[in-house]
Amino acid sequence: MKAKKSYGQHFLNNEGLAARIADSLLLANQAYEQVIEVGPGRGMLTQFLLGKPFKLLVIEADRDMVLYLHKHFPALKDRVISGDFLKMPLSDLAEEHPFGLIGNFPYNISSQILFKMLEYRQYIPEMVGMFQKEVAERVVAGPGSKTYGVISVLLQAYYSGEYLFTVDKENFSPPPKVQSAVIRMARKENLELGCDEKLFRRVVKQAFSQRRKMLRNTMKTFIKGDSLLESPFFVQRPESLSVADYVKLTNWIAERMPGE
Question: Which whole-number Å values give the CA distances from 74 to 36, 42, 49, 58, 219, in the listed order?
Answer without folding.
Answer: 17, 13, 14, 13, 56
